[in-house]
Amino acid sequence: MDLLPFAVRQVLFPRMAEQYGRTGKLQDLVAIVWRPTMLTMAVMAPMAMVGPLVGSAVLRIVMPNYTAPPPPCSGAYGFPW
Predict the structure, then answer these.
(1) Is residue 74 helix, strand or coil?
(2) Is the dihedral of CA 53, 56, 58, 64 positive or negative?
(3) pLDDT tens digit string along 21-35?
(4) Euclidean distance between the first and final Cα of the chain, in Å?
(5) Which of 14, 38, 44, 67 stands 20 to 30 A from 77 (CA)?
(6) d(Cα 43, Cα 55) in Å, to the nearest integer?
(7) Rg (CA), the chain
(8) Is 20 helix (H, G, I), strand (E, B) or coil?
(9) pTM higher than the cut 0.70
(10) CA torsion angle for 32, 36, 37, 38 (degrees, to 10)?
(11) Contact present, 7 and 43 (Cβ < 8 Å)
C-alpha cells in the first residue's frame, strides 16, 4: 500500500526543492503538492477501507484451517497487565 505514496514522493520532492530554491516561498509549494496529495488520498482511502474485508476473505480461501491465536496470558514476561 505504500508503493503509490512512495512513487508520488519520488516525483514531488525534487520538484518541491527546485521550486523552493527558485522562489523561496512556501506558498508556491502548495500548488505543486495539493493535487497529487488529494489524488493519493482519494486512491488510498478506499483501499484502506476495503482492504481488511477483502484480506479476511482471501485469508479464509487461502488458509481455510487458520484459527485465531489464543489470547495472551496475563503476566507474560513479568508485566502484570
Answers:
(1) coil
(2) negative
(3) 999 888 888 888 888
(4) 33
(5) 67
(6) 17
(7) 22
(8) helix
(9) no
(10) 120
(11) no
Separation CA 6–CA 65 (nearest Å):
35
Amino acid at site 53:
L
Cα separation, 43 vs 70, in Å, equals: 35
Q: Tell me the one-letter amino acid at 30.
A: V
pLDDT at residue 77 greater than cutoff 70:
no
C-beta separation of 1 from 48 below 8 A: yes
What is the SS3 assignment for 80?
Answer: coil
**Measured between alpha carbons, how far is 81 from 75 in angstroms, rounded to an integer?**
6
Task: Pick 72 or 51 by higher pLDDT.
Answer: 51
As a whole number, the mean pLDDT across the chain is: 80
Q: CA-CA distances (angstroms) from residue 27 to 5, 12, 18, 30?
A: 22, 15, 14, 6
Q: How many residues are present in the chain?
A: 81
